[in-house]
Here is the input.
Amino acid sequence: MDNIHETNQANETGARERGKRLGPEESRMQGHWLLAKIGKTVLRPGGLEMTHRILDNAHITDKDRVVEFGPGVGRTAKFLFGKNPELYTGVDREPREEMRKLVAEHPKANLVSADAKDTGLPPESCDVIVGEAMLTMQPDAAKKAIMEEAFRILAPGGRYAIHEMGLDSSLTDEDITRVKKDLSTTIKVGARPLVAKEWVKLLESVGFEVPYRTHNEMALLKPRRVLADEGIFGVMRIMKNLLKNKAARNRVKKMRAVFKKHEKDLRAVGFVAVKPTA
Here is the structure.
């Protein structure tokens, strides 16, 4: 019994010590979930302005069956619902409660708990796929696998709209390695943005044509972009949460510093790719 008691005490002490070493949860969270926790609802590198631009060029109608990869808390889903599609399907490995509630309010919407690389949806079962700020965090092989799945489930003539992080085309390989390392260290998840032409090349490699491309400043945490995306009450909510949470405040400062350091290296990129009809 004494040995068991000593072992339990040692385990409890070890857990406390690990907790001390790891620090507050906010110091370990992936950057996008940290921002969501403090109340940021738009987590797109090019902001709402670019989201709307991409969706407009996807030409979504009320006849379209729409799939969204990684809908998160449902900010883009709300815009898609506004286009009154024939059917909306959100694909997420672990759908958020906010998204579940949103889908429950729409009779022509549903959620599928699955990975974007293997949705389980039938071939040629949708007309539009939307994916924002998800491919950047994937290795190149996974990026391609997700694009292949999008190609598989799209009907001929279907559109694949993506909104991701890009790199300046003048960067050397050494520069790109440095940028990716700084980003990944700060946001605590592997960040693997590509130069715009590399995004296009990857889309074309799985069979897509890419008739539309756009870009914007990567200004996710700049005050004017936060105000444009979140509105004055959203900014007040974020500021209140940051004032109450020192660990989150310190993380956001570090993220802003890295984005500032690489503001000439980074940009937001968007594409609408089309599956050929023949």
